[in-house]
Write a structure and sequence with these properties.
Layout (H helix, E strand, L loop, with lengths): L6 H15 L8 H16 L20 H14 L7 H14 L25 H14 L32
Helix pairs in contact: 1-2, 1-3, 3-4
Length: 171
C-alpha cells in the first residue's frame, strides 16, 4: 500500500498562507514561493478532485475523501491572494466535496476525519456542519473519546476499540 495523503499538500498551502497573513514572511523567499507553486502544480497534475488517497488514517481502501478535499480546497483558496490559481481547480474540488458530503467517502458513511471539513478548514455551511457533528456524536462518540470510524480496531485498548480524545475538542 502506498499511503498517498492528498490532505498534506493542501494543509501545507493552508498553513503557510495563514502564517503569511499573520506576518511571518514565509513567502518572502523565492525558494518558498517555488515550493508552494510546485504543490499547486502537483495537485493539478494528480487531479486531486478525483484522486483516491489514504486519507488522514493512512489506510486502504484508497478513496476520494472529504477531509482531503477540504484541506486541498482550503489551501488553494488561502494561496489565491499570493498566486494565480485557476478557478476551475477550486470549483472541481468543491463539486467533488459536495457529492460526498456528509460522508467521508462513498463507502464510509461516518468517519471522524470528516470533522476536518469543519475545523480547521471550514469548508461546510452550518447545516452540513450540524449533520456531520450529529453523525459523529451518534455513531462514534464513546466514554474516552471518539472512534475514527465504526469497527475501527487500530491501537484498541478499551472495550476492544480505540477511543481518540483528540476529537472531543472538535465536538
Amino acid at each position: 500500500c502506498n499511503n498517498f495523503q492528498n490532505y498534506v499538500p493542501g494543509a501545507i498551502l493552508w498553513l503557510f498562507c495563514k502564517t503569511e497573513s499573520l506576518g511571518f514572511g514565509f513567502l518572502r523567499t523565492e525558494k518558498n514561493r517555488q515550493l508552494l507553486e510546485q504543490l499547486v502544480s502537483y495537485l493539478r497534475a494528480i487531479k486531486f478532485w478525483g484522486d483516491k488517497d489514504a486519507g488522514f488514517w493512512e489506510e486502504d481502501p484508497h478513496e476520494n475523501r472529504t477531509s482531503s478535499l477540504a484541506a486541498v480546497i482550503s489551501g488553494l483558496q488561502a494561496i489565491k491572494p499570493f498566486f494565480s490559481i485557476s478557478r476551475e481547480l477550486i470549483t472541481r474540488g468543491k463539486e467533488s466535496l459536495k457529492r460526498l458530503l456528509p460522508c467521508e467517502t462513498a463507502t464510509r458513511q461516518c468517519d471522524s476525519a470528516s470533522l476536518y471539513t469543519l475545523d480547521p478548514f471550514g469548508m461546510v455551511d452550518k447545516v452540513m456542519a450540524r449533520r456531520i457533528l450529529e453523525r459523529v456524536e451518534e455513531n462514534l462518540l464513546k466514554e474516552n473519546g471518539c472512534l475514527r470510524y465504526p469497527e475501527d480496531r487500530y491501537n484498541a485498548r478499551y472495550n476492544n476499540h480505540a477511543e481518540w480524545p483528540l476529537f472531543l475538542f472538535k465536538l
